[in-house]
Amino acid sequence: MKKIIVIGLLLLSLILVSACGGPTKESKKPDVNQQTEASPAPSEDASDTTIVIGKPIKFDGFEFTITELKIVATKDDKQSLRVTYDWANTGKDALTPLLCYVLSGFQNDVEFEGGFVLSDDVNYDIGYSKVNSGEKVVGAQDAVPFDDIDAPFRLELKEMYGKVVYSLEINDLKEYE
Predict the structure, then answer these.
(1) Taking the alpha carbons of 95, 6, 144, 51 in that order, is the dihedral positive or negative?
(2) Taking the CA atoms of the chain, what radius of gyration do you get in angstroms?
(3) Fewest CB atoms less than 10 Å from the CB: which of 19, 80, 142, 170?
(4) Residues near 135 by beta carbon (within 8 Å), at least 6 away in sequence
């Protein structure tokens, strides 16, 4: 039984690596003129990795734009932050959006992994579609759970196997209800 599980995990990891073209040495940095929600002035720092809703984040092979954040109920009577996004394939091969990035959240020193949150208000179908080179999907969704709507929350996004982490500090989750 253990061998079957190990083989299954190996096959899954091979699929994930091939779906996104494998690990990359370095992701491209976002546009240095991006603005943060906290500061209306353009950033002078070329390593700015702040997520800005509506601004594309460019990775090697794809572009990710968060278009909406919304608090939704999960099937286990908890809450989750639904992330709606547009995703463009800028690489050479067909890719599956949900297999190319990692979305997670941090609250009270606890990490919450995104993806596979069970909720009637999150539709993963678009994110699991195969997107050919040069094509784009609009309105894909993912979700990240959290424990306390009254506590600050940090949303993080990175390329699968990537090192560069983009983040958004949310002081009041209630503004996304």
Answers:
(1) negative
(2) 17
(3) 19
(4) 88, 89
Q: Using CB atoms within 10 Å of the CB of residue 72, give its burial: 0 to 12 exposed, 13 to 18 middle, 19+ buried.
A: middle
Burial of 130 (0-12, 13-18, 19+ CB in 10 A): middle
Within 8 A by CB and 6+ apart from 162, the residues are 23, 24, 27, 59
Q: Classify 147 as helix, strand or coil.
A: coil
- Rounded Cα distance, 145 and 48, in Å: 25
Query: Where do the domains of the chain lie, and which CATH numbers do they carry?
Result: 2-176 (2.60.40.1240)
Of the pLDDT bands very low, low, confident and very high (cuts 50, 70, 90), residue 159 is very high
Counted residue by residue, the chain has a size of 177
Whole-model pTM? 0.74
Please tell me the predicted confidence (pLDDT) of residue 28. 36
